[in-house]
Design a protein that fits this description.
Layout (H helix, E strand, L loop, with lengths): L8 H22 L7 E10 L3 E10 L8 H20 L1
């Protein structure tokens, strides 16, 4: 990434929290909340000389879980786009 804002650890955590919340709301807008047994979102951002971002989303919706795989992939892409926008300022 060519340009990134200088961020404190607290600011970075705030951005990650906002992205997490956005992704949760997006998933819950597509899937009935009662169908979701568990939803785990892991967002790991390392700002060193380069930016490293890892986003993992695990959705347990019982027998419907595999049906939502493309939604999860879309959400991972969305999380990357939001993070890039936020980190570039």
């Amino acid at each position: 990434m060519a340009y990134m804002k200088n961020l404190s650890q607290d600011e970075l955590e705030e951005i990650i929290s906002r992205v997490d919340e956005h992704i949760r709301k997006y998933i819950e807008s597509k899937i009935n909340k009662k169908s979701i047994n568990s939803l785990d979102i892991l967002i790991d951002v390392e700002l060193n000389e380069t930016l490293e971002v890892n986003v993992e989303i695990e959705l347990d919706a019982g027998i419907l879980s595999e049906r939502y795989q493309s939604l999860i992939e879309d959400c991972v892409d969305l999380a990357h786009k939001i993070l890039e926008k936020e980190l570039r300022g």
